[in-house]
Each structure stands twice: as structure tokens, then as C-alpha cells.
Amino acid sequence: MKSSIALLLLAASVLTSACGTEPAVKKQADTVPVSTPSAPAENSTTPTTTNGAAAPKYLPPSLPIPEDAQFTHVQETMENNKKSSTVIFLTGEELEKLGEDYKQFFQAEQVKDSNELIDKSSIVMNGEVAGKYSLSITGGASGSKPELREITIHFDEL
Fold this sequence. Notes:
alpha+beta, 158 residues, TATA-Binding Protein
């Protein structure tokens, strides 16, 4: 039975390539066109996602984002009137400097129940501003661009 399925898949593959059609799965291009997200409606469960340079809307305005940030992923949702955002960006800033900036932000915002690990190779921080929101920040060297750091921020209103 397994060999029959394998032969069928092989035959389908040969036929597809012989017909000159492109494979069903394409490799994603290195650059993605910039799209500007539209604001989600209140109580919307449909995420707004962008790949490119559009900045997120739902993060706290005082959260430090490096000037050279290149946003590679922004997903924002609003459900039950509560905002949620997951943001990934690349930056040339050193992790220790970013970690200090985020540490100062956590202190200024009075983030409680926080955990912090900051060194030259990684950032791992999370905590909660009582009754307002929770925040998680992680970062390390970018796998695709070793000269840059990749930072992921996850924000949820409570």
C-alpha cells in the first residue's frame, strides 16, 4: 500500500513537471512588498498583518523601538475590546543597549512580576503592568542576517 502511494505521488510529480506547470509550493521572495494595515474594527478577531516597514499601532507609545528597526512581522488583533500585538523587527543595535533601554522602560512603567535576562547574546524579558497589559520581549542574533539582531515583542491588554 505504501509503495502504491509513493508511486502515485512520483507519477503525479513527473506529470506535473512534464506539463510545464509550476510546483504548488513556491519559495517566498527575500523581499516582501510593504502593505499598510487597516485598523481592525472593535471586537475584530481577524488579525491585521504586514510584512514590511509599517509600524505597529498597539504597542505602548513609550516602548523604545530603535530608529533603524526593520519590521518583518506585525500582527495586531482586537478581541473583546482588548488589543494584542506580536511584532518582529531587525535592528543593528547591540542587545545589551536594547536590554538597558527595555529595562528602563519596565522600571518607568512599573512592570510587576518581571523576569529579565540580558546579555550580549540575548534578551528575555516579560512582565505585567497591573490591570493594564502584559509584555514579553525576546531577542538574539538574526539567523538570516547575522550582523543584525531580531527582536520579538508580544503585547496583550488585560
